[in-house]
Amino acid sequence: MTLLAGLGMAGIALVVIVLLTAAFRCKHMWEFVDKTEFPPPIETAVKNGVNLTWGLTTWQRHAMSKKTVVIVLRCPKCGESQILRETH
Question: What is the pLDDT of residue 46?
Answer without folding.
Answer: 82
